[in-house]
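Subject: two folds for Thursday's group meeting

Dear M.,

Sorry for the delay on this. The cluster queue was jammed most of the week, so I only got both jobs back this morning. I'm pasting them in the order they finished. Each block is the input sequence followed by the predicted structure tokens. Could you check whether the formatting survives your parser before we put anything on slides? The first protein is the one we discussed after the seminar.
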Amino acid sequence: MSEAILSLRDLDKSFGALHVTRKVTLDVAPGEVHALIGPNGAGKTTLISQIAGSLRPDSGRVIFAGEDVTHLDAPSRAQRGLARVFQISNVVDSFTVLANVVLSALATETTAWWGWGVAMKDPGLRERAFYALDQVGLVERAPDQAADLSYGERRALELAMGLVQNPRLFLLDEPMAGTGREESRRLTELLRTLKGRTPMLLIEHDMSTVFALADRVTVLVDGAVAITGAPDVVRADRIVREAYLGEGEAA
């Protein structure tokens, strides 16, 4: 098996007396879509924040692309190819669609920029931004205000904002949150087109999306890993069916 693009080893995090993640160990393989599911309060978003670098674990290690990044901040991890799409939209409504993607591209730049206007006119950044928008079907909306997008288009824009960073791993924190059935279906198909090219760690409550995309699934309960396995194995597990999928003994 190829070396994992992401390895978590015994990640532990508490807030006072509240133990949120408990010795979490998991791997994401190159090209894999690895789904992270669990009931509300299981610690999923706290875990993603520790992976992204916006939250420091109390103990344990985060190894990304063979490098221990546990003590690096979020911008440093982004520059190494770790891209995050948030549960709550981080689109700037007052910017154009194109400007949002250019702004996201700057997160991976090590060159000093002497003004926003200079960055917006840079041909390299613009080419990268248009390419990312093309991948999610939003090229024609590039000059429009982000505030004018539908909710599903906003989620697609956020994917473009991640793609423009040329990620080595996508952290997707509930990308279907707030979308309707048709929007969710379109976003699932969009993510399917990226499958195999960019590995993903996906948090999602929409089980149809999880089982349509995931190569493996990890179930987090009370901050600890309950089971990791292929989707069919996880779906068939009695404890998972009763505690999380909402099915009883007869299901």
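Second protein, same layout:
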Amino acid sequence: EILPKVNREHTGVFLTHVMNPFGFKRHLRGTEAHVNLNRNFSATDGLFKLKSPGSKTMHDRFLPRTPLAAPRTGIVERLETRDGRLYFDDVSLDEFVKTVAPGQFEFVDHLEFGGFGHEPQTRAMISWLREKIPLYKDIVLTELHTGLGHSGRLHLLTSGGAHDITQSLFDQLFHPHDDKEFYEFTPAAADGFYVTHGSFNDIFPQLASPEQRICAITMEFGTLGHDTQGRIESINRWLTHHQGLHFGFAHESVEREVNALYLEKFFPSSAEWRQKVLAAARGSFERIFSRI
């Protein structure tokens, strides 16, 4: 619907479908090496030297290293509401997410493992981008994700870094107020969202020259919802699946239920949800491309 209308004399388009075929086939976010590719992108190896002591502390305190016996994690059972915020013990849910979710590069069996080095497909993509990025004046990334945010709502996110958006290019392409029926721009500092290390967004400003304009945007379609119940259910599915994947399941029935719920977290079966996603994507892309 959209690409035939794009003036290809001055606009190049590159589509990437599956970068993690192993995970795609098995409904996993990680590769064969349990690496989250969206924590694996960097122009140098310096990323993999980062330490995340806060993440390790959270794992040591709250995440068991035993076979999962029930589709409900103990940390969720300890959640309580204080002053309108969710807490387990003295740690708020938002603090936990902002500490653990950005990524870590030390422990394969901890959440959001970014690898000890570049995965093969990451190296291949970076090599391809090194060739293509210098050919263009402006570089725009729209990366599709599901999970965070209000159910069926499209949230535009950045990695939280300082350079993945050139403001003049963003202002040219994205008009959050005028386009609010299709999406909302959500900063990484918002409750329930977070800064990421080694995300796909990060590589674009690292490879671009100073005179090039960059707009690296994640298009995140919310699934379970951003209300209290939705956030609790989301973190429960995240943690139970991780525990079972790395430390096993006590019963096959628990494994089947946890895996089914985990898939539903990222790929809802609801026809209504899917129609909302298609409508938001269609409207957003039409407006973005019309402004290029």
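Two things I noticed about the second structure. DSSP finds ten helices and seven strands in the chain. The longest strand covers residues 138-147.

Cheers,
T.
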